[in-house]
Amino acid sequence: MASRRVGFCLSDKKRRRINLSAFSDLCAGRGIEVVEIDLSQPMASQGPFNVIVHKLSDVIVEAEYDSQSQQLLSNFQNYISAHPQTLLLDPLPAMTQLLDRFASYRIMSQLQNTLKGKSICCPPYLEINTSDPSVIQAAVRSRQLSYPLICKTRVAHGSRSHEMSLIFSEVRLCDVRSPCILQSFVNHGAVLHKVFVVGDDHFTVERPSLKNFPPGPCDRSTIFFNSHDVSKPESSSHLTALDDTMPRLPPPSSDAMVALVRQLRVELGMALFGVDVIVNIHTHTLTVIDINIFPGYEGVPQFFSSLLSYIESIMEKQGPSEPAVDPDLSPQPSHCHEELCPAGGDKF
């Protein structure tokens, strides 16, 4: 039996998407046993684990209304509390905050303050909790958001989180579906840069994205779309078709990207996450538009080797009786209190 054991707690869909069996074979060659954790069974009988890699998004969301999911989550938390020597990738509180776009956008908006001089920003936005069009209109005017606006659901997990819309004028704010984020749309040449983080490594993959739109309000109906239809590798949509005369934008600055990933690792206290960034066609500013929990790492052939290297580095830091802690991810004071609202966004 291998002396080093890594537990994976993933949905069936996630397990298939990352091809966990292939990763298990790679680990076996390095003397590491991979265990697929069954939450419906006692975890103590499945352990011990040096490291647990998980994506419990579904369980956390369902635990809000489903007693069985509540019990599964409680059992998992109890096991982790009773086994402090086991490192959890990633901490549940850190991951949970990214299920709420209000919380993740507050983190993003702070980056332009903590990374001054790196040409990194988050577009101005509003947190919308009302369905009253007059209140929303007043809020957009007060915040001086520019049209078109992109509207995203507050929930950042599940199929509904991919349902978005583009709103082109004040009169069309009646199409807003609360609770949501309203954000000024930034023209970016229909190119999305997906940054995949694995511990100290990060990889950038280009994806199609929304085309440019004329700035300013116009008499155009709201466009409702699913982000999977415009930003997956195989996506083909009229919403991503650029004018042939549009010059190709320069890639994001590597220095800015390194600074962004390093700061987010500190802010989030996480090792496995993704960041969606675009480049403003006018200012060439690196613009952060979303943070994702344990993404699919599609288009990253180095994912397995990078994840294995990171897991091994964590194990090497473990003393024989010490908790498994990554010193690079020491707990940081939370900046995302519900009563606070940073400069990047206001609540309405």
UniProtKB/TrEMBL annotation:
Its EC number is 2.7.1.134. Residues 319-348 are annotated as: Disordered. It catalyses: 1D-myo-inositol 1,3,4-trisphosphate + 1D-myo-inositol 1,3,4,5,6-pentakisphosphate = 1D-myo-inositol 3,4,5,6-tetrakisphosphate + 1D-myo-inositol 1,3,4,5-tetrakisphosphate; 1D-myo-inositol 3,4,6-trisphosphate + ATP = 1D-myo-inositol 1,3,4,6-tetrakisphosphate + ADP + H(+); 1D-myo-inositol 1,3,4-trisphosphate + 1D-myo-inositol 1,3,4,5,6-pentakisphosphate = 1D-myo-inositol 3,4,5,6-tetrakisphosphate + 1D-myo-inositol 1,3,4,6-tetrakisphosphate; 1D-myo-inositol 1,3,4-trisphosphate + ATP = 1D-myo-inositol 1,3,4,5-tetrakisphosphate + ADP + H(+). GO terms for cellular component: cytoplasm. Keywords: ATP-binding, Isomerase, Kinase, Magnesium, Metal-binding, Nucleotide-binding, Transferase. Binds 2 magnesium ions per subunit. One of its GO terms (biological process) is inositol trisphosphate metabolic process. InterPro entries: ATP-grasp, Inositol_tetrakis-P_1-kinase, InsP(3)kin_ATP-grasp, ITPK1_N. One of its GO terms (molecular function) is inositol-3,4,5,6-tetrakisphosphate 1-kinase activity. This is Inositol-tetrakisphosphate 1-kinase. It comes from Clupea harengus (Atlantic herring). The gene is LOC105909690.
